[in-house]
Amino acid sequence: MLNTLSRLYRHPYVKVAAVIFVWFFVVLILMTVSVKKLAYNTGIITPPFPAITLLKATMHWDSGYYLSIAQNGYPATPKADIAFFPLYPLAIRWLAVLVGKLSTAAAIINLVTTIAAGIALFRIATTLWKDTTVAWRAVFIFLVFPSAYFLAGAYSEAIFCGLSFWAFSCLLKKEWMAACILAGLASAARLPGLLVSAAVIILYTQSLPRNIMTIPKVILATFISCAGFLAYMLFLTHAYGSPFVLHSVYAQYWPDRQVQINLLSTFWFWIHSIIHTYQLGQTTNAVNLALPVICWFVAALILIKGWRELPPILSFYTLACLILFALTRTPDSMNRYILAVFPIYLILAKKILRNEERYGLWLVSSALLCGILLAAFATNFWTG
């Protein structure tokens, strides 16, 4: 028995889980301290001060939508809530039946799925290169990514990372059914889940012999891989009369996020917005605009530098994600979206940060930036 427990303890997946468990609570503590020491003491939040707990400190901005949907469901008429995909609030609602509180349920889901994401990332790296050093580096780079604190907040980033990372892990192992199911769930968590579905369908189709019997298998795999998204579209059609109501809601509540096909125009708009905002004397807003833009271009440079290190499907997935994120004119939230693009961490771990000094410098710099943004987010500034 002791030998079994000892072997289990030494298993790398258990170690990854333990590291992320500690990391998760450190993030919660830092958010709570940020609220109490920064927001209260500097007057950002004015009296009467609400009681701040470890979990309440993470509840900002879009968290309210997810918790509202979990508690009350989607509204009777189209409102901003329907822009938030259903898997995460549904999971909160179901788990809250057991644990009693929505905030507790959200934290448990985020902890478990972040651990799942870390283990999947480790598994992907060892599948590709049989190198645990690279795998550990990828995990740590993921955990100190500048927007990684969203994994601990009531946002859908954690559940999407967990599902999408595992979908690709199964895909690389040719575990087709598991990959399809995980992609289907990911498509119910966030819109980029459809890119995960596309990757699964492409690789699965390539693995099949080219004959007439392949067609029904591809159709079935496509249906399973997109099941979550299709189910949500059916719900929107039933509840509001059309699946395109999602587009109408975006146009009403986020008119600056309309699709812009001309990427060069989008890039110019980003840069012009930053310069114009700075010239107006709104330095904080200019920084908030600049950070996600910098994040996007750094991610693009990392892909250009290391795409040959990856299987083609991972390179194309990364490129597709970056293009999808750039289709909206506003750079807002770009750093949060890129958090889930895991091939970036693999390239950094395998190629760009092979040097120990460079790797250490990256971790320290990224962790410091993450800490600053975490403190700003916890004190009610929008940072992603």
What are the defining features of this structure?
mainly alpha, 384 residues
Number of strands: 0
Enumerate the spans where pLDDT stays under 50 for 5 or more consecutive residues.
Answer: 40-52
**Alpha carbon gyration radius:** 21 Å
**Beta-strand percent range:** under 5%
Global shape: globular
**Tally of separate helices:** 18
What is the chain-wise order of helices and strands? HHHHHHHHHHHHHHHHHH
What's the end-to-end separation, in Å?
Answer: 47 Å
* Overall pLDDT score: 87
Portion of residues within helices: over 70%
Helix- and strand-based class?
mainly alpha
Can you tell me about this structure?
With 384 residues, the protein is an all-alpha fold. The protein contains 18 helices and no strands. It has one domain. Helix 2 packs across helix 18. The longest helix is centred in the N-terminal third of the chain and has 31 residues. The radius of gyration is 21 Å and the shape is globular.
Structure summary:
With 384 residues, the protein is an all-alpha fold.
Helix/strand layout:
Layout: H1 2-10, H2 12-42, H3 63-72, H4 87-99, H5 102-129, H6 132-143, H7 157-172, H8 176-186, H9 193-207, H10 214-225, H11 227-240, H12 245-253, H13 263-279, H14 283-306, H15 312-326, H16 334-338, H17 343-352, H18 356-378
Helix pairs in contact: 2-5, 2-18, 3-4, 4-5, 5-6, 5-7, 6-17, 6-18, 7-8, 7-9, 8-9, 8-10, 9-10, 9-15, 13-14, 14-15, 14-17
